[in-house]
Amino acid sequence: MLVLASASPRRREILSRFIRDFHVVPSNAEERCSGTPEECAVELARLKAREVYSRVGGTVIGADTVVSIDGRVLGKPSDEGEAYRMLKLLSGRVHRVTTGYCIIHEGKEIAGSATTEVKFRELDDELIWAYIRTGEPMDKAGAYGIQGKAGLFVEWIRGDYYNVVGFPMEIIWKLRELGFEVLSR
User: Fold this and answer.
1) Structural domains counted in the chain
2) Looking at residue 185, what is its pLDDT?
3) Per the record, where is site Important for substrate specificity?
4) Which domain holds residue 40?
């Protein structure tokens, strides 16, 4: 039994493109971390995977995505003001999106991370506030979702697009190496 330890509809949708049969069991793990953005993302993914594995067993995938700039991790905004400050900070600059993952398979942990660089165009206040009013940034690390309206903000990316959405293809390849059938219908 393959289990996705996430409530994210984006992760569920990406995984379903490649693997047909899996269950979704959101994690109840407390999200706390320290260290570099990469260490933080992997630590949070481990916490999620371990918590769900302790309840349901099977093969469990935990993932967590962080946005960082100047070594500072940007989580999900707590309110519109914080969303504005995050988007203003990202405006016209390159930032990093890192997804940590942990797969628990047959009691063993396989953990890693993928990082993608993203450059935003210069964003004026009118555009930032128009985006915030859509409600889209409020449940996303760094206050944006590349797969939605914020795709307009992106000048370029270097790396895995799906990583920026929150589920890098590296996870699919790891599952394939573990014997899970991909691309079957």
Assistant:
1) 1
2) 62
3) 10, 65, 147
4) 2-177
Catalytic residue list contains 64: yes
Give 152's contacts (C-beta < 8 A, 6+ positions apart): none
Model-level pTM greater than 0.85? Answer: yes
Asked if the structure places residue 82 within a domain, the reply is: yes
CA distance 129 to 133: 6
Q: Is residue 185 part of a domain?
A: no
Q: What does the alpha-carbon distance between residue 4 and residue 85 come to, in Å, rounded to a whole number?
A: 32
Marked catalytic residue, from 64, 124, 139, 160: 64
Above pLDDT 90, what percent of the chain? 88
- Please give the structure tokens belonging to residue 135: 């409600």
- State pLDDT tens for residues 111-135: 999 999 999 999 999 999 999 999 9
User: What CATH number should be reported for the domain holding residue 141?
Assistant: 3.90.950.10
Q: Let me know if residue 140 belongs to a domain.
A: yes
